[in-house]
Write a structure and sequence with these properties.
Layout (H helix, E strand, L loop, with lengths): L2 E4 L6 H15 L7 H7 L7 H4 E6 L2 E10 L8 E9 L8 H20 L5 E8 L4 H8 L3 E12 L20 H11 L11 H8 L10 E5 L2 E12 L2 E9 L8 H15 L4 E7 L6 H7 L3 E13 L6
Parallel strand pairs: 4-5, 9-10
Antiparallel strand pairs: 1-2, 2-3, 3-4, 5-11, 6-10, 6-11, 7-8, 8-9
């Protein structure tokens, strides 16, 4: 094997999509993508493909792939850098995962130093499904389990609508900033959260995956109090990317309203599945809400962290 390590380029989009979707199927994570969405991710603000990606190739075959992304704000007094990576299922057990992680950690440390000089660092990454090889590697390298994201789904053809009116409505473009403000308020008491900037929100709002017809909001006096924002990463699957309620409006059943409205819209549009993820450490007991409108758990993805002190000169 003649292996080459390098950053990704725009010419690699098709190979990245094929690789990502293969890993999603073989590992059972459900984290699929499209060529359009991948090309868009190469343009994310403050993400430099030439420095923030790592890939390993054997000729034209992509063997390993990873990236790092730094938060703009400190999280619990630390620079938070997400480290994402995977090795082709047919090439595992050869040390590629360890080498990939080392390269990603080096870049993550450098990026943290650029964004937040002198600050301690928190690396955060997915451990995949329970008992995955990723979990073993991460634990060997000093990472520890932090929390778990439970994917929940509704099979829309079989869904029994609980009935009742919903005060939620489809959002229009004029509410984009109001939804961001509501989201930043709703999640400010959640672990590992940092506010989403206007720049990143505007970029995400233009994504080809956005499905505003299935999104819903509750608005009072011009303010968004609750929201469910949907995307489509896999054909026929309406993915509720964000759902939340402003702290002041909790306890009024508004999240129930936006989810009910989204479910009804997705089924009417012919979608097979509605899905979302819930953080196991959610302070609001969101999983009970999701169960109440028909969602059922289908998989659990772990998140691991490793805290590091600021390196000399960083």
């Amino acid at each position: 094997m003649s292996m080459t390590w390098r950053a990704l380029t725009a010419a690699d989009v098709s190979a990245v999509v094929t690789f990502t979707n293969l890993v999603a199927v073989r590992d059972g994570t459900g984290q699929v993508t499209t060529e359009e969405a991948t090309a868009e991710m190469f343009q994310v603000p403050r993400f430099d493909v030439s420095t923030d990606t790592v890939s390993a190739w054997d000729g034209g075959e992509l063997l390993a792939l990873g990236s790092v992304f730094a938060r703009d704000a400190l999280v619990e007094g630390r620079a938070m850098v997400s480290v994402d990576g995977a090795v082709h299922p047919d090439h595992r057990g050869q040390g590629l995962g360890s080498e990939l992680l080392s390269r990603l950690e080096t870049r993550a440390s450098g990026l943290a130093g650029e964004r937040h000089p002198g600050q301690a660092l928190r690396l955060r990454t997915s451990g995949g499904l329970p008992e995955s090889s990723s979990q073993q590697l991460l634990e060997d390298r000093g990472y520890a389990p932090d929390n778990y994201f439970i994917t929940m789904q509704v099979q829309l053809a079989d869904w029994v609508d609980p009935g009742g009116e919903s005060v939620a409505v489809r959002p229009d473009r004029s509410l984009e900033e109001a939804i961001r403000d509501a989201h930043n308020d709703a999640f400010r008491d959640h672990r590992n959260f940092s506010p989403i900037s206007a720049e990143h929100w505007a970029f995400w709002g233009k994504s080809s995956a956005q499905r505003p017809d299935q999104s819903r909001v509750v608005v009072e006096d011009g303010r968004v109090l609750a929201y469910a924002v949907t995307n489509e990463h896999e054909p026929g699957v309406s993915h509720v990317e964000l759902v939340g309620t402003r702290r002041e409006a909790r306890g009024r059943g508004l999240a129930h309203d936006v989810l009910l409205g989204s479910l009804r819209a997705a089924r009417a549009a012919g979608y097979r599945i509605s899905e979302l993820e819930v953080d196991s450490t959610s302070p609001t007991g969101a999983d009970r809400l999701y169960l109440s409108v028909g969602y059922q758990p289908v998989r659990v993805i772990s998140r691991y962290v490793r805290d590091m002190e600021a390196a000399a000169g960083r």
